[in-house]
Amino acid sequence: MQQIPLKKLDQKVKNELSRKSLILVGLMGAGKSAIGRRVASRLQMKFLDADTEIELAAGQSISDIFAEHGEAYFRDREEKIIERLLVDGPLILATGGGAFMSEVTRQNIKAHGISVWLRAELDVLMERVGRRDHRPLLRTEDPRAVMQKLIDERYPIYSQSDITVESRDVAHEVIVQEILKAIATQSQ
Ligand code: S3P
């Protein structure tokens, strides 16, 4: 990849991330992968999606892992793979929506990087997850009720993240800019 000089803000954040990872947290549909990928390309850093890494390591899709081995097995794999990715970092890492609910993973994230919660309203999430049907937790009669329950259970925990940015229907670049500014401000 051709290296072009970075803008001042971007360089500052990249320096801040020279030994720390940036970890995106939030519910399904919050935009963790889409935003993470853009942050990484802007900072010329490595991006990985924890769900994809779990699938590659297992040689199976997440739905198949859930169906064949159950959620507890998936959560165990998720914890171990995220730990490995963070030890091998720094990188920009999108985590699956349940990852941050693990105390072990929260500790690993704290030890290795800066967490950013992409907070989103129920309607925004439902609109986005409705576009695809690959998420085992939402293959139910009433996915909206499931998502509301996850909001109730998880938002108090997600709020322990270092930075919170409201994920909404604006251009991805707006969210990326807010994340970079928040990191730059926090590191002052
Ligand atoms: C899950 C979210 C999914 C995936 C799995 C479980 C969850 O990731 O890890 O289906 O518990 O919220 P995304 O948040 O990337 O969709």
Explained architecture:
It is a single chain. The chain is of the alpha/beta class and 188 residues long. The chain has a single domain, classed as Rossmann fold. The chain has 9 helices and 5 strands, in the order αβαβαααβαβααβα. Strands 2-3-1-4-5 form a 5-stranded parallel β-sheet. It is globular. The model has no long low-confidence stretch (mean pLDDT 95). The structure holds shikimate-3-phosphate. The site of shikimate-3-phosphate has 10 residues, from loops.
How would you sum up this structure in a few lines?
The chain has 188 residues and is of the alpha/beta class. The protein is 55% helix and 12% strand. A 5-stranded parallel beta sheet has the order 2-3-1-4-5.
**Count of strand segments:** 5
The first-level CATH class is given as Alpha Beta
- Radius of gyration equals 16 Å
The helix count comes to 9
Q: Please bin the fraction of helical residues.
A: 55-70%
Main sheet: which strands, in order across? 2-3-1-4-5
Task: Indicate the CATH topology.
Answer: Rossmann fold
Please tell me the CATH architecture by its name: 3-Layer(aba) Sandwich
Spans of at least 5 consecutive residues whose pLDDT stays below 50 are none
Order of helices and strands: HEHEHHHEHEHHEH
Q: N-to-C terminal Cα separation, in Å?
A: 30 Å
Shape verdict: globular
What small-molecule ligands were found? shikimate-3-phosphate
Number of domains as seen in the coordinates: 1
Task: Give me the secondary-structure category.
Answer: alpha/beta
CATH superfamily: P-loop containing nucleotide triphosphate hydrolases
